[in-house]
Design a protein that fits this description.
Strand content: 5-15%
Radius of gyration: 16 Å
Largest sheet: 5 strands, mixed
Number of domains: 2
Strand order of the largest sheet: 3-2-1-4-5
Bound molecules: glutathione
Distance between the termini: 28 Å
Shape: globular
CATH class of the largest domain: Mainly Alpha
Structural class: alpha+beta
Number of helices: 7
Helix content: 40-55%
CATH topology of the largest domain: Glutathione S-transferase Yfyf (Class Pi), Chain A, domain 2
Order of helices and strands: EHEEEEHHHHHH
Length: 204
């Protein structure tokens, strides 16, 4: 398997999941500006959308989209318990979808966009705050988004990590902050975060 990633971007959730699940993979860095891989390939020929994450699976197929990739990875290692079954699976998918549509793409894509006008950014900041407040309320008295640790918690933690580059304060969402701390304190997740932080800093 090969993961196409950019340090500290949403593809970090795939790396964390792979480490948590004990999945062996090659990690190929993508330059988001030039759309080339670290070994000189044209990334647009791998994922025409030019976005990370993408994974190449054993038959050569390229899978894209965080929500589907994370679930695919979790299902490769059921014993790791990264995705529940039954109605809990449905609840987990709800949170994956919520983080993806309401927080990540619905808000952060505009907040970090180099082309979005200031009005769009201001709207996106308010949208992110509303969505995070909703998640924070759900997390009151809970350790995880569902009844046990899952890929939805991983995804939320990775997206929450971006707040430090925005005017939104993670501390305003204490339950989200506490969940992120729990996730990043796990040995596998912590290793993934530390590795990508080092790669990110080395390039800065
Ligand atoms: N719909 C995609 C969005 C992925 C996405 O936004 N990836 C960002 C990094 S977090 C990216 O590659 N941005 C560069 C670009 O859009 O050109 C998904 O959910 O997987």
């Amino acid at each position: 398997m090969e993961l196409f990633f950019s340090p500290l971007s949403c593809s970090l959730a795939s790396r964390i999941t792979m480490y948590e699940a004990g999945i062996d993979a090659a990690y190929t860095r993508v330059d988001g500006k030039t759309k080339t891989t670290s070994d000189g390939r044209n990334y647009l020929e791998i994922n025409p959308r030019g976005q990370v994450p993408a994974i190449k699976i054993s038959d050569g197929e390229i899978l894209t989209e965080n929500v589907s990739i994370l679930e695919y990875l979790a299902d490769l290692a059921p014993k790791a318990g990264l995705a529940p079954t039954g109605i809990e699976r449905t609840r987990m998918r709800k949170w994956l979808a919520f983080v993806n549509s309401e927080v990540h793409v619905g808000a952060f894509s505009a907040i970090f966009s180099s082309t979005a006008p200031p009005e769009a950014k201001a709207y996106a900041i308010e949208r992110a705050k509303k969505a995070l407040a909703h998640v924070d309320k759900h997390l009151e008295g809970r350790d995880w988004l569902t009844n046990s640790f899952s890929i939805a918690d991983v995804y939320l933690s990775v997206v929450g990590n971006w707040l430090q580059s925005t005017p939104i304060k993670l501390a305003d969402f204490p339950n989200v902050a506490a969940l992120q701390k729990r996730v990043f304190s796990r040995p596998a997740a912590g290793k993934a975060v530390a590795e990508e932080l080092a790669l990110y800093r080395a390039a800065a």
